[in-house]
Design a protein that fits this description.
Blueprint: H1 2-23, H2 31-50, H3 55-78, H4 84-116, H5 128-149
Helix pairs in contact: 1-2, 1-3, 3-4, 4-5
């Protein structure tokens, strides 16, 4: 949960920096906010990666949400056009990120099953503490699948 909040912080600080970059064209004092926003964003992103969210997932969500929010907010704040084609692109970006996240969830589930065996039990060569956590992860990740089949 904390990793996702940190990712939200990375997204919001990147969007603020990008919007400030546009505003800095008219008000040069905003360049300080641009630099601070990007530094903060990358700092948050590094913390997200340390918390275990995969690079492809974190960067995909960060980049896509940044594009979507920047496009919408630049239309609101700066009067930039938001055409049907831009909206279609935004929808495609959001869909792509959703597919990447679903792929990451399946990969985590497969890794956990491989580590613990299909029944969630321990393999002989595994330590109980680490394997128990993996087995719990398999059960947690498998629970939604059981509900979907109902």
């Amino acid at each position: 949960m904390i990793a996702w909040l940190l990712l939200m912080g990375a997204i919001l600080s990147e969007v603020a920096a990008t919007l400030s970059l546009r505003g800095a064209l008219d008000h040069s004092a905003l360049y300080a906010l641009v630099i601070a926003g990007y530094v903060l964003s990358f700092g948050f992103l590094a913390l997200v990666l340390r918390r275990g969210i995969g690079l492809g997932v974190a960067y995909g969500i960060w980049g896509a949400c940044g594009v979507v929010l920047t496009a919408v907010l630049s239309a609101v704040l700066f009067g930039e056009s938001l055409t049907v084609l831009k909206v279609a692109g935004i929808v495609l970006i959001a869909g792509g990120v959703a597919v990447v996240e679903l792929g990451a969830q399946r990969a985590r589930r497969a890794e956990a099953v491989e580590a613990t065996g299909p029944d969630g039990g321990l393999h002989e060569d595994q330590h109980a503490l680490g394997s128990r956590g993996q087995a719990e992860m398999v059960r947690d990740l498998s629970a939604p699948e059981a509900e979907e089949g109902s």
